[in-house]
Write a sequence for this structure.
């Protein structure tokens, strides 16, 4: 259980970090959508290890193979199976962790849950699992863009205490992709890159905040009770490894305002109902109102650090542990496309569900 | 769709604010649990309108009627249908909103989604829907307490910029319930009550942060990928009306730490594997580690205020609107049992699911 | 679990035979559909006990109360909660069964599953649960009729070895409802009524076959793999109490034909693709082809008989048991609307799901 | 949607007949089960084309590759991804069907549903999809056998009008596998083989009935309402291509009995509650009673025949069509392991779900 996400547009991911490969089955994709492996690869390359000096140096091409569901360049409406082989698994780097629980990793909790675990690279708990999400998200993004003009842009908003100045309503993908940390504020980006490089040298790590905006979302997506759009977005992004918090619109800061300050007054603009402010973050009562959907996700500093740490072994003995091998001193640059993917998956699911909420008048 | 929450332990809520009543069907409750209407009433009374001077004065007894699933005081394993009649509906107070969209309410988005809405008290978007959650949560709490010794305590951590000093690992229910704002820090509670009373007088509103702790959760609950425990908790609490943010453990503040500061070192204590710090908030890799689960939820200031506001009517004309009638100047005191209910619902679902992850050795 | 049926259009039923009442929550109903309690009552009256001399004489008005989801005569798109009070429960008639397992009833299996059971009238296993299905099915029928012109007609095809002559493609509701056994072949109907009356006198019971036809189903509903239309129909009708078999189109008889006899040749008629024969029963590869959907359901003779039977008590002792009280010597006349309801529920679910299988060209 | 089966133990299949390959993701398998590719291959070989002279001669090794979820020979509790490459696709044999709808195939209905189809070998509608079911079923069978001693045996009960004499309570796997038609009655088997060989020569096809028995199923599996064990079994087997009917226990024949003949009297035997007869087919009120579960499935004659047939082309013109290439003149011998797989998948799902229906006393 728990390896499927979505109701109408569903992805099921599989794979361990050091097993044969990883992949995803996308079910519920509408038929006749043009789709190629290139569409997937563009997104996977943004998530790929080894893409820059500030990320892990594991060498994976992360090449997407579409095994089903696409015929003569178009989707069939049947499940799309996507496979990525593991190419640079180095299980030997993890032998020391076979008997020791890495602090703030999932080693101990997997052991308690399953009574067995693949200790190589975290096994199923590895962020390598997110390849399937990004591939599925690429399909979702394509549907959203082509069918209702939705554009999704994620970017690094903060690394540790370096904050970027960004206007979510105008930020452009090109700005985000113009530097290796994926922060559209060039000045802040430089500082962030320096900080991450320094952390790598120290064998330590940092976290930060990713912001993501979805523009062009039609009003009416979502649901009023449990499947509120913000609830599904929260679940989606909080299922990404290393996340510790989620907020939408005004978020935690909004709790310091009064109602008269926080309410978004409606006004008519160009024949449309719009709001003057967007503290709501594009969602009211669980349903999109047509304004930009803006959310933020907190990522903790990477748990893998190259420093000696106290821990316990599988026999319950206090021991010392020191990681070796490859790791990301900061996960945020590679997490940007993952956040976008989860946002896209939630939106496309609600977009398709909304089609069932209509009578033939 | 969207009115059911949970996989193995599931609740389906129904009802509009000013319709016949509201209720819930609880499915998947184990058989032979002692259960009475009193068990439900205790929790419903904490959520009830009119319970103090700082909440809405709508007069509802919110009496729970169990219509099925309980036989001679014990659950049958069949669906438990719980009904609460609406007693003090005042639809006339809402006639002015029939044609005007209240700012930061769900009026406009419901209209866009469904092309129809019950404008009385928000209809389905009313927080009255949460009665079903609290009733279902009361059943969940009982199972957790009796079957695995889990205790859940929510409380107000902050109102606007008044913060309470609370230690989640020792806070007691009695402290929380000792004042009408449900804040265990008596000094802060007093200031909060004053602030809310003042807001009511001004016709304005405030928001804040509720913190919730679950103690005694066994290690091993949750799932590694999409159904991570924190992801399901995020979805659960972000589906509560008026929420804008969620965080677990170190949350957003944790993004300012380095990995070496943030990691929770394991150590052996009394034959158990424990962590020295709890930045993880009791969950690692989506699975509980046996430490306290600590989360925080941001609530925006109530959208209903007694001041004139700009808005648009259903014909797209710019108009003025002023609310009348009863409302909460601050939803947090009544939201505490709702947060607890959602946390309990998520935990009991994962508790029951964990039973399927076991071989007969 | 297991009290919800459907994916997009979902019903959740609740209630025990001798508890407070029975009901259903309908979720996923499109908004703005005209709906009244009368729409439900028409169908419930066809299922009602006491409607004729050949059914059980339990006195229930089975009056449907809509508690939510309908506003000024139209659906809101929110859950429709429907409640029917139990009026003529006679728990005392069942005291003898408290400790004895009635043969071919669910008493023993409930005990093994739950370790507890409500022995009054079968509790949750009572056919009284089907009230919720019929009420939900009434909503489904209305959508199908109004939105895509589908008409569903069920009727008794055989009682024990009395078979009716019926042409599914032309049978009319009026013929079915013209006699108390719901068999459109008047001559056979008379014999069936006599047989059932005689069985009642003997304290014995009979079963038979209900046939159901859905006309006007658009081509394209269903799914190619697990959610084949015939698979969902099979699940739907086989979840009705007392069913032992299901067949579609040629069914079991079709196994005696060769492929060249069984295949339904396509031909063009009035600009449409039609089949000359309909051995397929309106479904090919799990998807409707626009021809009549024709299915048959086998019902066993009622398990409750007024004769002494061998059985075992809860202590494992061999004992004798003799039923008292009210019962149906043949369930088929009252089961006709239940079969129709399940067929309608499956079709409306696939009808709504099909809306998600479309690109905006 | 629709490519996933099961709730707690779930399989998601993917793949087209002439695409890259076919496969399945198994989710919810308990951890620490010994599992190898050989366990899967044993079952896949029983379903494989080319296994005898009476089945299709397409040359596929159908070799199972486990890509995830198994570590050092044991399951991890994470998704098990299984891949089988397509080796002998001959798309050119299907060029004639690109524009013509094969009678009683899914060509026309796919076109109506999706507006696109892969015309090579039926694409997703091909029985090749069932490879994923058989692989998933092999895992299910292993759990059932090791964890609760359940043994499942399917066999051909009838081909056209040649019926076998079989006692479901004693039939042995070895008898079934002793001949190529998988009928444990050696005399009938011979006649069946002759009939199928003759049909192949004529270019025609035949259908028949497969019976399947599950022995050792513990009492208490199933659910009382929609997820009745027989309902889920019906859905499972009716989702297999070419099925037209399902019956359990006495089935359609049982409708000719009276209640006093049909009821299964309980009696105490060796300290257990047993029934004297088994007209119930091992299930009462949707829940297993510990007796053998016995069901039958009707398969129509194969739609692919080597004779000229009337049909319509994609332009709506009446045309003639004649199949070429490889096909099964009778699907039953290869369908036996598929029926068993679906039965195993349903039983293991309910077996795991039953674990959640228990209090810690």
């Amino acid at each position: 259980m728990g390896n499927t996400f979505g109701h109408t547009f569903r992805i099921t991911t599989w794979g361990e970090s050091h097993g044969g490969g990883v992949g995803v089955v996308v079910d519920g994709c509408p038929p006749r959508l043009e789709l190629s492996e290139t569409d997937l690869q563009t997104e996977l390359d943004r998530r790929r290890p080894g893409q820059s000096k500030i990320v892990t140096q594991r060498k994976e091409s992360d090449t997407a193979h579409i095994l089903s569901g696409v015929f003569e360049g178009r989707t069939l409406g049947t499940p799309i199976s996507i496979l990525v082989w593991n190419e640079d698994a180095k299980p030997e780097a993890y032998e020391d962790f076979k008997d020791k629980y890495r602090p703030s990793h999932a080693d101990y909790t997997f052991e308690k849950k399953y009574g067995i675990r693949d200790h190589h690279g975290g096994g199923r708990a590895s962020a390598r699992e997110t390849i399937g999400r990004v591939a599925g998200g690429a399909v979702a993004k394509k549907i959203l863009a082509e069918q209702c003009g939705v554009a999704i842009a994620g970017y690094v908003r903060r690394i540790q205490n370096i904050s970027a100045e960004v206007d979510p309503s105008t930020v452009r993908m090109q700005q985000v992709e113009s530097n290796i940390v994926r922060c559209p504020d060039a000045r802040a980006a430089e500082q962030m890159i320096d900080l991450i490089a320094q952390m790598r040298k120290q064998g330590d790590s940092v976290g930060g905040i990713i912001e993501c905006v979805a523009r062009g979302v039609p009003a009416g997506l979502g649901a009023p009770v449990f499947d509120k759009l913000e609830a599904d977005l929260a679940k989606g992004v909080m299922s990404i490894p290393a996340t510790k918090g989620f907020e939408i619109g005004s978020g935690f800061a909004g709790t310091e305002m009064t109602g008269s300050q926080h309410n978004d007054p409606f006004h008519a603009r160009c024949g449309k109902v719009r709001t003057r402010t967007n503290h709501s973050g594009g969602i009211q009562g669980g349903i999109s109102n047509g304004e930009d959907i803006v959310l933020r996700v907190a990522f903790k500093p990477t748990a893998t650090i190259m420093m000696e740490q106290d821990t316990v072994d599988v026999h319950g003995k206090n021991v010392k542990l020191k990681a070796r091998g490859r790791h990301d001193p900061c996960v945020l640059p590679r997490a940007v496309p993952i956040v976008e993917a989860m946002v896209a998956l939630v939106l496309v699911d609600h977009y398709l569900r909304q089609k069932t909420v209509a009578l033939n008048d």
